[in-house]
Amino acid sequence: MADYSAVFNRKGKLNKKGKALIQIYVYFGDRKKLYVSTGLYLDPKHWDEKKNKVSDGFEFASQYNYTINEKIRELETYEMQRKAMGKEFGIDILRDHLQGKSTEAMTFNKFCRSSLKSDKSLRPSTIEGYEDTLDKLDDFNRNIRFSELDYKLIKQFDNYIRGLGLSHNSVWKNHKNLKRFINEALKQKLITEYPYDNFSVTYKKPLKEVLTDKQVYTLIEKLPELPEKYKGSVERFLFSVGTGLRFSDVVSIRKEHLVDTDNGLSVALDVMKKTDFPVKVPLYEYFDGIAEKIIREYLPLERKTILRPEGRATTESLNSIDNANIKTVQAMLEFNKVFSFHAARHTFLTEVAHRTGSVFQVMKYGGIRKIDTAMIYVHLAEDKF
Asked: Cα 148 to chain center, whole Å?
């Protein structure tokens, strides 16, 4: 970090009005230094040499000292922003910046991308979630300055994402993701106030929705007749109904995750995407083995990830597409209620609880650590049947 301090009358000369310039002295080490003008001129009698500031007795002392301190803060912030983004900082870079020659605008958007890229502790699925939020932020405003991060901007972003038709908890999740980068900016002293102080979105604990057996078998029966644009989405949904795997795991399955047993195929994951918990689930056991039938249809395609369609869509965006398609199909089939993709997992685990009566089997197949969470499905099975 460079050293910044105020210096008065560096050249020892006064102008025609008997005043001298106040500058900011920037020392980079190795005898490299730069003087930055504050634009302020002062009579020598009003400069306090001991305290290195404008004397309190001067009529405009508070205004002058505020301007000097703000100039120092501006220079320090520029240095911290560059370093936070992994960019070099030195005398030539600062000089070019002050002369308006800098071609790289320091924006909050770029800071977020750089911060995300440098965090090696995040899982790929988590990174995709953050990237989805940052894509929305760029669509909202791709050149947000740090000085613009206030309640008003957060409220405008909230109105923007709500206008996209997101569910309440999806809005909450985007704000949660954005807070991660704002907190990082606070830690690095790139901003001094927290823009979420007077703004909050609470998470609404969703009710666990479960399809009836009739609805499941109607989807299975109608699957061959569906338009191609919906078929893949419904197949992934039914695969989840037959395994309880979350969407992020469904689209990550590879051939090496499949285990051939005497009874049929099982899927074995060393870690689940969301929980880092291992799980092994038979594909042949539930709902007439629909999961195994679907996976066997896809195996000849030789895809890297068997059930994930080719293309560059992120897991987040593909999940949104599948949710929309599934709801459309359910409406076409005149279901009395439409379900999101995650209802497939709830349906499977409720079926496991019904068939086995064992909370531990629910925990095993669902990759669930807490018995209280697994007991929810036991109660759902009691209500359903």
From this structure: 20
Q: pTM of the predicted model, to two decimals?
A: 0.54
Domain count, the chain: 3
Q: How far apart are CA 329 and CA 20, in angstroms?
A: 77
pLDDT of residue 361: 92
pLDDT of residue 43: 95
Task: Clarify whether residues 82 and 172 are in a common domain.
Answer: no
CB atoms within 10 A of CB 139: 11
pLDDT at 355: 92
C-alpha–C-alpha distance, residues 285 and 141, integer Å: 49
At 380 the pLDDT is 86
Using only C-alpha atoms, the chain has a radius of gyration, in whole angstroms, of 30
Domain encompassing residue 227? 213-384
| Residue 86 DSSP class | T
267 touches 298 (CB < 8 A): no
305 burial type by CB count under 10 A (0-12 exposed, 13-18 middle, 19+ buried)? middle
Which amino acid is present at 48? D
pLDDT of residue 339: 87
Q: What is the pLDDT of residue 278?
A: 83
Reading the block at residue 257, the tokens are 């995750």
What's the pLDDT score for residue 337? Answer: 82
Helices (H), 150-289: 151-162, 168-187, 213-222, 228-241, 247-250
CA–CA distance, 10 with 36 (Å, rounded to integer): 11
Tell me the C-alpha distance between 319 and 124, whole Å: 15
- Residues 6+ away with beta carbon under 8 Å from 136: 160, 161, 164, 174
Same domain, 233 and 175: no
Spans of the chain below 70 pLDDT: 101-105, 205-207, 273-276, 312, 384-385
pLDDT score of 6: 96
State whether 355 and 223 are in the same domain: yes
Q: How far apart are CA 278 and CA 270, in angstroms?
A: 5
User: What pLDDT does residue 262 have?
Assistant: 93
For residues 59 and 161, membership in a common domain is answered with no
As a dihedral over the C-alpha atoms of residue 366, residue 367, residue 369, residue 373, rounded to 10 degrees, the angle is -20
Q: Which of 187, 222, 249 is the last residue of a domain?
A: 187
Give the helix/strand (H/E) hosting 323.
Answer: helix 315-332
